[in-house]
Write a structure and sequence with these properties.
The complex is a heterodimer of chains A (about 475) and B (about 650).
Chain A: E1 14-19, H1 27-38, E2 42-45, H2 52-61, E3 66-70, H3 76-89, E4 96-100, H4 107-116, E5 120-122, H5 124-142, H6 163-175, H7 177-181, E6 194-199, H8 205-219, E7 225-231, E8 240-242, E9 256-262, H9 274-284, E10 289-294, E11 309-314, H10 329-332, E12 335-338, H11 346-361, E13 373-375, H12 384-401, H13 429-471
Parallel strand pairs in A: 1-2, 1-3, 2-8, 3-4, 4-5, 6-10, 6-11, 7-9, 7-10, 11-12, 12-13
Chain B: H1 2-14, H2 17-32, E1 37-42, E2 45-50, E3 52-54, E4 60-62, H3 72-81, E5 107-109, H4 114-125, E6 131-136, H5 139-142, H6 151-154, H7 167-173, E7 184-189, H8 194-216, H9 220-234, H10 261-264, H11 267-280, E8 283-285, H12 289-296, H13 303-319, E9 325-326, E10 328-331, H14 333-337, H15 342-362, H16 367-370, E11 374-380, H17 389-404, H18 409-412, E12 416-420, H19 433-446, E13 451-453, H20 466-482, H21 496-518, H22 521-527, H23 530-548, H24 578-594, H25 598-611, H26 616-626, H27 629-640
Parallel strand pairs in B: 5-6, 6-7, 7-8, 8-9, 10-11, 11-12, 12-13
Antiparallel strand pairs in B: 1-2, 3-4
Helix pairs in contact in B: 2-3, 4-7, 7-8, 8-11, 8-26, 15-21, 17-21, 19-20, 21-22, 25-26, 25-27
The chains are: A alpha/beta (about 475), B alpha/beta (about 650).
Chain lengths: ~475, ~650
Amino acid sequence: MHEIQKYQPKHKIRIVTAASLFDGHDAAINVMRRIIQSTGCEVIHLGHNRSVDEVVNCAIQEDAQSIAMTSYQGGHTEYFKYMFDLLNEKGAGHIKIFAGGGGVILPDEIKELHDYGIARIYSPDDGRVMGLQGMINDLVMQSDYETVTELGNHLAVLHEKNPKTIAETITIAENHPEKLASHKLEKENKIIPVLGITGTGGAGKSSLLDELVRRYLHDFEDKTLAIISVDPSKRKTGGALLGDRIRMNSINNPRVFMRSLATRQANLALSKYVQASIDICKSAGYDMIIVETSGIGQSDTEITEHCDVSLYVMTSEYGAASQLEKIDMLDFADLVAINKFDKKGSLDALRDVRKQYKRNHNKFEVKDEDLPVYATIASQFNDPGMNNLYKAVMDSICQKTDAPLQSQTKLTTDQSKKIYVIPPERVRYLAEIVENNRRYDEWVTKQSDIAQKLYQFKGTMEMLNESKVEEK
Amino acid sequence: MQKIQDKINALEKQLAPECKELIDNWQEKEKLYQEEDYNFTVRNKTIKIKTHSESLSHSQIPKISTPRYKAWGDLLQWQLQENVPGEFPYTAGIYPFKREGEDPTRMFAGEGGPERTNKRFHYVSLGQPAKRLSTAFDSVTLYGEDPHVRPDIYGKIGNSGVSIATLDDAKKLYSGFDLCSPTTSVSMTINGPAAILLGFFMNAAVDQQCEKYIIANGLEKETQAKIEAIFSNKGMTRPSYNGELPQGNDGLGLMLLGVTGAEVLPDDIYQKIKSEAMAMVRGTVQADILKEDQAQNTCIFSTEFALRLMGDIQYYFIKNKVRNFYSVSISGYHIAEAGANPITQLALTLSNGFTYVEYYLSRGMHIDDFAPNLSFFFSNGIDPEYAVIGRVARRIWAKAIKHKYNGNERSQMLKYHIQTSGRSLHAQEIDFNDIRTTLQALYAIYDNCNSLHTNAYDEAITTPTEESVRRAMAIQLIINRELGLAKNENPLQGSFIIEEMTNLVEDAVYTEFMRINERGGVLGAMETMYQRNKIQEESLYYETLKHNGEYPIIGVNTFLSSKGSPTVIPQEVIRSTEEEKQFQITALNSFQQRNKKEAPELLQQLKQAAIDNDNIFHVLMDASKVCSLGQISNALYSVGGQYRRNM
């Protein structure tokens, strides 16, 4: 089979990928999203078990050209028609729907869905004829258009907080910055604080962010929130995996707007358009804005230029204590979270980071507990350390910006303590089982050798006794 | 001579007494299998079994064939690593002989509403002495939600499984099967919301017994009056079974639809019936959340909370003497279906099993109180390792439970259900699939599985039809009833290659255990998605070899027909009907309406139990009487956390 050339997109293409509701089959969509990304697209991946509402809201907020889905659990006709209808209802009928479901989606159902307006359902035979890349080329080619080219009167109606308007305005900022440059964004007459979150890759930033959002929505019944999340683009292909949404359980809420941005330049931690995006969200009048970015190096402090309060998320896995001296964010961050606090060495990390913080800020007289360094286990439900951090974040915001966001919730605020499924001292159980069973096997071998020798000696003895009798 | 005698004396001292006993008693033991009958006890019942069967040629075919070893070393080694079936380390099987008159066949069903599946259960088990029912749930149920008119939910109601959202649904689903009869056993393929479905099932079983009590004591009229009064008070109509009862369904379980025994019987009587029912009910709930996170993705709660629910169920089982119900089916099937090779399937599954052991021990349960409630579920593919998967599993489990965890014999016995591999079925030349299934079934039966499901040949393309399911059943029956060698129950023992494969796979599993151990055990490895990635890699390897033809698959990538063996596309598939979907939604609405006063209070108790670290399943037994599946799931999210997806 000859290699199929990758299609080269002419525009910046953003595609939302997911598996259908109540559908855990994510192997195929995981293959597809990788190829879509390597074909130069920005992929917002939602993972498995996603409702139409979640996917549609995401596609609109992300101003995606297309949605690519798999559905293997039946109910696809209803699912995709509903998606089509909901997109249209929300004025986003331009967003194209692509899907596949192997042999589960029957030929006449494919026809029915195409007739209804679904861009393309790929059948197993399509896969065989076109190949994987061929299918993706087809999908990307059909998605190669601009969702918006003119501002229109978007700026005048930003305050209505229509996600589509905000999303399109951000797209203009990204793709046609010159068109926005000549306008002045309206500002609402209120203080809108910006929280910046950065940290090392794999520190659990998006889980931690989700846990902050969950508490915020619980804490304030009517406050709104905009989240801007930045992930790096690949220099080689121009594609990007915008992967924060998959971890976020609490964002599908009418009070939350979230937009993922690709840096579009691989060596940056922040998108050039992050400030414009913040300004657009401010103009829309959200009560608070969170900017989250993947840290790309120790000297990455750019986020502090865009936010009022900054939070640095790290884990105990930074190497020797001297490495901490190289982390610039420990100079600049208002708050530090040591996440995954159940990991080995976390207590030492807490001590070392506190020391470093004291040195950096010349705060040798402050008590350890009063330093803004927090131990968290974001992956643990209702983690007391997360409660602490949430309170500290909100307090710090109020203090620094006078924003009317005094936290009202009463949360348990003890030290983070991992509730272990397997007690730490038992964590070697599998090795112990192997040792136990191998010990048994060795014992069997030894005992069998002994038995064999015994049998041989006894046999010899018998033979000798027999010959003795004969001699007599 | 004296020197030899000294050697003998010295060696005899070194030989462990239990080994000496094994050698000394061997001849006597061997004799037991040569006599006409063999007697043994299972759970205080003596079972007498004929040791031989006769062929048409009048040959006496031994059920258990014993080794001809004479040298003590070989004899001892064999007994310590192989042994006869029913004896440690149970390599050849956990019972001395197979159960007579009961083929290890499970009847699988799940489609539409509870009524349709009930009809199907009765159809497939009609005339069978033992009712072994296996339930597949629709994806709405699998993810813990209620049926709803919202189109993305609506389309999935009753598709690829049965829709069950309330206790009434469960009562209808199993109506006409006495859930406490020793010949009935029910398995439920449910994981994320397993505890809730188990609550429905247990209450259905209890209410059946209440119903039997009511009839036996002539209380039927009085009870009907009570139920009428309850409903007229609420101003609602009683729910009913939709349609006519199928042949074989005597209506057991339907009298108390819409109410529970607790509402119509005095409390002391109800409690007595309940505790007796719990002790008798037989079955399995899959509830294996670890493999869900590793392979199948039907997680709804945070993994830690899901594990806690499992522990609560097991704790409740111990306290209420639920001895005949498996609280978990530790499953490799889905791991293999997702692409893992047989060694990885076995290693991951056993490591998950030992993780449950460690967790339950850490919660203060005794090994012998819970280990007998654990069961396993494997996939049986066509690879060589599948010839010994049961042998290796039993041997590893027995060695660890006996020597490391000091468990008793019952705890040492690993019981497993096995299903032929769905992944090895192909959508081309689908007639060939039965040949693959037959070979896999043969592996399984020779390996002494405890229960077996054979797939239908058309499963790769559609929901199996009555015709294809009948053929699949025939595969098992032909092996069990017709195939002469299968009259023998240990045909694999004594084969050089089987012994070599057993050792090889056992060793490979230990190597994998060590890899998982290096990553902090099963849960540590899961954090970095070690298991998931391993499964994906192995899947890709298989697909690559299949694609380039290095791995031959007849009628798929080689030996194609003159027409090129095209993919078979089904003309139609079984889907749930509009009427069924509407009926489910209406039934749910009236259930919720009927219980709108009681439900909030119980949901609150449920949350409080979670917060206070009380046994959630204990409260769930009551909550599942008046709350729907979705109501309970959503209440628990707020106290246990929702599952967080991984990239």
